[in-house]
């Protein structure tokens, strides 16, 4: 559960923030009006008046842009440059884990090959080994 929460779950819930939030009405970071108290539809003017101010929008988009970019020192899930384990059993298990991740990545890339909008957030090659930003 811990590895999943700090890797795949984090990637699934955070990697697409810019794509979702860049269109401000889709995911506004702030609202200038209180939420409606009834289920009555809002007019376009009421809706637009509730959206955040331009400066708030620009700051939000800047933060989302920074968060979406892969860090220069990104280590994909299963990549362990430091050799902490010298015993045969852990090394064998790490190798099996890395081979399984590579197979999953190939399968995801094949499925995405013909898609106009590929879903890459859960490709192990794009999932970081930790949630550090």
Automatic annotation (TrEMBL):
Superkingdom of origin: Eukaryota
The UniProt record lists the keyword Oxidoreductase: yes
Keywords associated with the record: Dioxygenase, Metal-binding, Oxidoreductase
MF annotations from Gene Ontology: metal ion binding; oxidoreductase activity, acting on single donors with incorporation of molecular oxygen, incorporation of two atoms of oxygen
Matching Pfam families: Lipoxygenase
Lipoxygenase domain: residues covered: 1-133
Keyword Ribosomal protein belongs to the record: no
GO BP annotation list: lipid oxidation
PANTHER family according to UniProt: LIPOXYGENASE (PTHR11771)
Name of the molecule in the record: Lipoxygenase domain-containing protein
Taxonomic source organism: Accipiter nisus (Eurasian sparrowhawk)
